[in-house]
Specification:
The protein has 226 residues and is α+β, with helices and mostly antiparallel strands. It has helices at residues 6-24, 86-92, 148-154, 208-217; strands spanning 2-3, 34-35, 41-45, 59-64, 70-71, 75-76, 79-82, 98-106, 125-127, 143-146, 161-169, 173-175, 183-186, 188-197, 203-205. 19% of the residues lie in helices and 30% in strands.
Length: 226
C-alpha cells in the first residue's frame, strides 16, 4: 500500500465535500479534479508530477455515507510496474512503490553473464545482501537486472536465456545507476518465468527443452537454442 500524506487526504476531503454540497443543491458545478459525482461517491484524480511517480494521475474514490460522513482512503493499493524499456527504468523505477517486473539475461546454463555465482531457476528467490547502492557505479555487486529491450539485445547469442523476475520497490531495489542504459541492481528478486524470443523478435513464455527439441526436429529452432 502507498500511504497518502495527511494534508493531501484533507485536501481531497474538502474538494469532495464541496462537490457533494453543490449536488445537494441541485447543481453539478465543476470542482477541480473531481469527477464521476453521485450522491454517494466521487472520484479525485491525483495530479501528474514531473517525476512521473507511479501514482501520478491515480484515481482516489471518495464515498459518502447515509449520515453524511465523507470517507477518503488513506492509502492506495500497490501497483505493478513492468520494465519494458530504458525509460521505464530511468524515469519510473525510483518513484515506484509496489511490485516490479524486470528481466535477467543469463548464459545457457542459467548463470549470470558477468558474475556466474547464481544459477537462476523459475520459482526460486535470490538475495545479495551486499548489493552496492552507489548510483555512480554503472556495474557493481548485486542482482543485476534490466528492462526487456535491454536483455533481448544484450543476452548471450550462444543460447542465452531470459528470465522474468519480480521484486518489491523500494525495499528490494539497491541502485539505479545515474548513467543507466536500462540496467540496475537489486538486493532480492524471485524468478517467475522463463521467456524466449521468436524469429520475429516477439517475446513469449519458453517452451522448455522438450518443446525446443521438437522445434529443432521441425527445423524451427537454431541449434544454439537447444
Amino acid at each position: 500500500m502507498h500511504a497518502l500524506a495527511p494534508d493531501l487526504v484533507e485536501k481531497i476531503e474538502r474538494r469532495a465535500r464541496k462537490a457533494f454540497r453543490t449536488l445537494d443543491k441541485g447543481r453539478k458545478d465543476h470542482v477541480h479534479r473531481i469527477s464521476d459525482l453521485t450522491a454517494t461517491s466521487c472520484t479525485y484524480r491525483l495530479p501528474h508530477k514531473t517525476s512521473r511517480s507511479a501514482y501520478s494521475g491515480a484515481k482516489v474514490t471518495v464515498t459518502r455515507g447515509d449520515d453524511g460522513a465523507i470517507v477518503v482512503p488513506t492509502a492506495l493499493p500497490a501497483t505493478k510496474l513492468d520494465l519494458l524499456s530504458k525509460s521505464d527504468v530511468t524515469s519510473l523505477l525510483k518513484d515506484h512503490v509496489g511490485t516490479v517486473r524486470a528481466y535477467k539475461a543469463t548464459k545457457k546454463d542459467g548463470t549470470g553473464t558477468q558474475y556466474p555465482s547464481i544459477t537462476y531457476e523459475v520459482g526460486k528467490a535470490y538475495e545479495e545482501k551486499k548489493a552496492v547502492t552507489d548510483e555512480g557505479l554503472d556495474c557493481a555487486a548485486g542482482i543485476n537486472l534490466a528492462d526487456l529491450e535491454w536483455v533481448k539485445k544484450e543476452r548471450p547469442k550462444d543460447g542465452g536465456r531470459i528470465f522474468a523476475v519480480e521484486f518489491e520497490a523500494p525495499d528490494d531495489l539497491a541502485a539505479v545507476p545515474t548513467r543507466s542504459d536500462g540496467k540496475f541492481r537489486a538486493f532480492r528478486c524471485k524468478v517467475v518465468e522463463e521467456l524466449e524470443v521468436d524469429a520475429s523478435g516477439d517475446v513469449k513464455p519458453a517452451r522448455g527443452i522438450i518443446g525446443r527439441l521438437k522445434d529443432k526436429l521441425m527445423g524451427k529452432t537454431p541449434d544454439d537454442q537447444v
